[in-house]
Amino acid sequence: AKPQRLAGRHILVTAGPTHEPIDPVRYIANRSSGRQGFAIAGALAALGARVTLVAGPVTLPTPAGVTRIDVETAREMADAVDRALPVDAAIMVAAVADWHVDAAVQKIKKGDATPTLSLSENPDILATLARSPQRPALLIGFAAETERVVEHATAKRARKDVDWIVANDVSGDVMGGDSNSVHIVTKDGVESWPRQGKDAVAAQLARRVADALEPAQPM
Ligand code: C5P
């Protein structure tokens, strides 16, 4: 066995949702428990990697050996990712909100006229990293899909210019659940993994990352 296969590697993981405040007491967000991303961060650390985990608002414990940076909004996540560079690999698991609101400074009162939310686009952290001069050697995105999972993930891989997309079938009870069914979409094709626990997905993905970062041994 080679338990420290990722020793000397610095790997970035984003996880969880982002919260985009509407006012001091309200926000919009995507659904995400953060569990898959946290499990991946832990599995990479278990293989010896130095792991920086940029986490949106979740109530999960920090996995052993992981450096965690907590953020709230997508713009804060983008800044934290930028500050974590350079990295050998990045695995972007976070369910980043696509828009933010021009937040009110004071709580909006219910008795007032019903407010209209004016949304502005958030930075695409993954696409920005893909175009960055500091693009990691291995850049991995996630895609949560409810239908035509592989087809959408294949298109997303090309559009975002990333190495792998881990396509997540969220048509069942994956959100907040214990298990996950994923397809690994690379330039060479698609690997479909059996439905398994999120910790097992994380361990298998960490081994796959170690394989990719390790030059093939000469015969
Ligand atoms: O385009 P879509 O949001 O489906 O892409 C999902 C992938 O892109 C995930 O890896 C997610 O973490 C990343 N992403 C990001 N910043 C955004 C939106 C998505 O890093 N603003």
Order of helices and strands: EEEHEEHEEEHEHEEEEEH
For the sheet with most strands, the description reads: 8 strands, mixed
**End-to-end distance:** 19 Å
- List unreliable stretches of 5+ residues: none
GO biological process, one term: pantothenate catabolic process
EC number: 4.1.1.36, 6.3.2.5
Cofactor: FMN; Mg(2+)
Catalytic activity: N-[(R)-4-phosphopantothenoyl]-L-cysteine + H(+) = (R)-4'-phosphopantetheine + CO2; (R)-4'-phosphopantothenate + L-cysteine + CTP = N-[(R)-4-phosphopantothenoyl]-L-cysteine + CMP + diphosphate + H(+)
Q: Could you please describe the fold and organization of this structure?
A:
The longest helix has 16 residues, at 198-213. The chain is globular, with a radius of gyration of 18 Å. The model has no long low-confidence stretch (mean pLDDT 93). Strand 2 (19-23) and strand 3 form a beta hairpin. The protein has helices at 35-46, 74-84, 125-131, 149-160, 198-213; strands spanning 10-15, 19-23, 26-29, 50-55, 66-70, 89-92, 99-101, 119-121, 138-145, 164-169, 179-180, 182-186, 189-192, 196-197. Helix content is 26%, strand content 29%. The chain has an 8-stranded mixed β-sheet, sandwiched between helices. It is of the alpha/beta class and 219 residues long. It contains 5 helices and 14 strands. The structure holds cytidine-5'-monophosphate (C5P). GO terms for molecular function: FMN binding; metal ion binding; phosphopantothenate--cysteine ligase activity; phosphopantothenoylcysteine decarboxylase activity. Its cofactor is FMN; Mg(2+).
Question: Which SSEs are present, and which pair or pack?
Answer:
Blueprint: E1 10-15, E2 19-23, E3 26-29, H1 35-46, E4 50-55, E5 66-70, H2 74-84, E6 89-92, E7 99-101, E8 119-121, H3 125-131, E9 138-145, H4 149-160, E10 164-169, E11 179-180, E12 182-186, E13 189-192, E14 196-197, H5 198-213
This protein binds cytidine-5'-monophosphate.
